[in-house]
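Quick start: load a record and inspect it. Here is TonB-dependent receptor:
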Amino acid sequence: MAIAILGDKDFEKVPSIKNKVLRVNLNENIYGTFAEIGAGQETVRHFFRAGGASGTIAKAMSAYDKDFSDAIYGIETDGRYVTEARLKKMLTHEMQLIEDRISRYKQPNKIFFTYANTVATIDFAKKYKGHGWVGIKFQISPEGEFNEIILHVRFHENDARLQQLTLGTLGVNLIYGAFYKHDNPKKLLKYLYDHIDKDQIEIDTINFSGPQFENVDNRLMSLQLVKNGMTEAVMFDPSGNNVLPAALLYKKNVLALRGSFRPVTRVNMDMYEKSLAMFLDANRVNKNKTEVIFEITLSNLRAEGEIDEEDFMGRAQLLCALGQTVMISNFKEYYKLVEYFSNFTKERMGLTMGVNNLVDVFDTSYYRHLSGGILEAFGKLFFKDLKVYLYPMKDPETGEVTTSENLKVHPRMKELYKFFKYNGKVVDIENPDEDISNVFSREVLRMISDGETGWEGMLPEGSAELIKSRNLFGFDNTTVLEEKQ
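Running the structure step on this input writes:
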């Protein structure tokens, strides 16, 4: 038996927090628990104060003491408490209690939910502003399977009390969104910031799961986070799941490749393989403690105008199929990318790039917004033992090969470039594959969209088949079938 949870009453365009809570509380079928650790019981407080909570709240708890928390939810293998694994254990445990203790025979129409968070607010020294995991496990019908929405937040306010208040508002928005906006995840995402300024809290990871969200690609949800200004960067792993950047990069060596990857070519993979070998050898670092990140900037995605989500998914699918970790960022300048990585690791870093990218790095117009100009940017970019691995470029008309030795930058930047070049900050990628020197993504893309042949060999193994089977980048499979017939 399905229970409608959308009321008939018209609410204002952006309902107040109290109205959101009342809409949940006054729905006689919604019933669940609140488990909040680390920042008070700020979410459930809204539900108690609004009125009508007796039919909604089964239990509210906060296991602050670590030993007590371990006794309830178990001990984490890494000994930490503010983790995704901890949050999932909380959601599973609390939902199991509801199902064990509430008789479906007596309450056939109840729609169960569990809301949980585990957070650390700002410390006394105000050095670490805090972060946390927030989630909800819920049904949309009594006989339905459970769905989950799990997100990670970073606090930006400098006062613990303000962080608590913001977390409470976010919690209400999440619960309200789960029940009344689950059919439109993109809008649900935007509504999480109702009555919250984006400079108060950052959402840098979110994952939707369960039957209600079986058609939701979490990589697209990641893109929405950056597109909506909710965070500066997101990452997803080869399986397509969104991953927390801090967890992935913590104490890792990082090698990053920036590109359009539209589509990813054999040149891109040659850059990756050769630079990674040099990076590991030069730094004598463990490959298992090294992360390679394929980064696409938002400005790159917007190069053709409004962001084309289908085009983005094509790039993402190819990179994931090649086993790569993908990052979507809002960092136009490379120094911002390095600064971002430095928030999570102090280990070795490297940047792999082509000739045109390096020329852009020495373009002063990128740094006019900085009081210290290009020197300030370079101080941030090369503040540690960072190396740029430069992939040579062959001119298809003249045959001339451009390397770090004959790279042409603006005349005013020549001496600065020489300084970094001869101090070992810029090194050429050794033994590039000359057989693919004439492969360019834009030409491959043109050939695909124009229905030409011969582009398949310009891509990594398996990529052409994926493009054809899924009609990516303008490839028309129906035309090919008609020609065969």
